[in-house]
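Write out the 3D structure for:
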Amino acid sequence: MSLQTIPIILLILSSFFLVLFLGWRYALLALALQYVGVFWLIAQTLPIGLAAVKLIVGWMAGAVLAASQLNLGEELPVSDLAGRIFRGFVMIFGIIVAFSILPAAEQWIPVEHSLLTGGLILLISGLIQLGLTGNPFRLSIGLLTFLAGFEMIYAGLVSSVLVVGLLGLINLGVGLAGSYFILSPSLEESN
């Protein structure tokens, strides 16, 4: 097993964890591990400082979402076994799709193999998360996952400090918007 397969396995496991388990604490832990995998893969092409920006910004967006969940103080309902099995099969299908379109994507996008693999896995995982829920917290996690996949592929194409900063700002904006939409029902009730 090479050093490039470890973060890809980490990304696959964190994606499965994000889809299968609905507790917000577990989701934020999986998101943090996902950003470690993103950092690991991006650090192979970008300087460590720029890769660390992606890691820290992702963790900050997760911290903003965690603060909103702490203020809300309620857990998502635990899903039944059939729901978990369905989400698990959807994720397995998504991973199969990611690996099946990888050869065609390698011809179109001149990016390192491991970056493209991880990026496609996160893009598809983010789309699956967005399609399976209507909860603002889960939607924010799905958007952050989708953006992390896009950032991985784009980092292999462009190594600009300005682009890294703008994508970091977008990630923080997604975290803040998600936090607002999580807290907006409780803010309306208090008025």
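The chain has one domain: 5-185.
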